[in-house]
Design brief:
Length: 258
C-alpha cells in the first residue's frame, strides 16, 4: 500500500506545474518521457491531472478515498455508486451483494459521509520528517542528482492556494514528479489512460521507514530497487552502476535520510 503522509500538500500542487514537467516526446533527448495522467475527477466533475495511486489515477483525495472505499472495502458511495464486479464478472454482483444501494451514509450529527472523513484525514496528515542528514548523505544527494535520478524524482514543489491555509504556498520535498513513466517495473495493469507498463513515480520521502520496495515488493533493499530500474531509467541505473561501491553507498545513505 502507498504511504499517505503529506498528501494534502501533493493535492495542492497546481495542475499546470505537473503539466510543465511532462515530456512525452522526449524532446530533450534524455531518454525520459514522463507524462501527466489526465483523468476525470469525480469529486469536481472536471478533467484534472492525476497524482494519487500507483497509476496516478486520481487527482483529488476525495476521489482517491472514495475509490478505495468501494474497491478495497466494497462500500459504495456517492462518487462510486456501482459495485466493482468480481474479476469483471458483473453477473456475480447479485450473489455477493444481496442488498443493493449505497453503503456509505451521512452522519446526521456531523453532516459528513465516510468519504468526507477519509478526505479530511488524508489531507491533514503531515509529511514524514527528514532523518539525520550526515555529510555522507549530502554527498549522496549530489551524486543522486549527478546520475540523473532527479529527472523523475523531482526534489521539491511549492503548493498553490489551498482551501486549507496551512497547505497554501508551502515548499515541500517529496522526490517525485507524480508523472507516469515506463521504468521496467510496471504492474501489467492498464488503468485509465495509463498503460500496463507505466507507473507513477513513487515519492521517496519517508522511504527509510519502508521496505520492501516497488509495487509488488520484489526489491528487499534500496540497492535492489535501483538495479531493477530499466526503460526510461536505464541511463540513470547505468550511471549508478559505474560508480564505485563507496559512491553507491553514499546514494543509499542519502535515501536512508529521507
Amino acid at each position: 500500500s502507498l504511504a499517505l503522509f503529506g498528501n494534502g500538500l501533493v493535492e495542492a500542487i497546481p495542475d499546470a506545474v505537473l503539466i510543465a514537467l511532462e515530456d512525452p516526446q522526449d524532446r530533450d533527448g534524455d531518454g525520459i518521457s514522463g507524462r501527466a495522467h489526465r483523468v476525470h475527477d469525480k469529486a469536481s466533475d472536471k478533467t484534472r491531472i492525476g497524482r494519487f495511486g500507483w497509476k496516478a489515477q486520481q487527482a483529488t483525495l476525495m476521489a482517491f478515498g472514495a475509490e478505495a472505499y468501494r474497491d478495497e472495502m466494497g462500500i459504495t458511495n456517492d462518487l462510486f455508486p456501482q459495485e466493482a464486479c468480481p474479476r469483471g464478472d458483473c453477473a456475480k454482483i447479485a450473489f455477493f451483494n444481496p442488498v443493493p444501494g449505497l453503503q456509505d451514509a451521512l452522519n446526521p450529527n456531523t453532516g459528513l459521509r465516510g468519504i468526507d472523513n477519509f478526505e479530511n484525514f488524508m489531507k491533514l496528515l503531515g509529511p514524514p520528517p527528514r532523518g539525520p542528514v550526515t555529510d555522507q548523505a549530502l554527498e549522496g544527494e549530489r551524486l543522486f542528482q549527478a546520475v540523473g535520478c532527479t529527472a523523475c524524482h523531482t526534489p521539491a514543489f511549492v503548493t498553490g492556494e489551498s482551501p486549507v491555509r496551512a497547505l497554501s504556498f508551502k515548499r515541500f520535498f517529496p522526490y517525485s514528479d507524480f508523472l507516469l513513466h515506463d521504468v521496467g517495473t510496471g504492474d501489467g495493469i492498464g488503468q485509465g489512460d495509463a498503460s500496463p507498463e507505466e507507473i507513477r513515480t513513487p515519492p521517496l520521502w519517508g522511504v527509510r521507514l519502508r521496505a520492501p520496495f516497488l509495487h509488488d515488493g520484489r526489491a528487499s533493499t534500496l540497492q535492489e530497487a535501483i538495479e531493477l530500474h530499466a526503460g526510461e531509467a536505464a541511463r540513470s541505473r547505468s550511471q549508478f552502476e559505474k560508480l564505485s561501491e563507496a559512491e553507491q553507498a553514499t546514494i543509499i545513505a542519502f535515501l536512508r535520510s529521507l
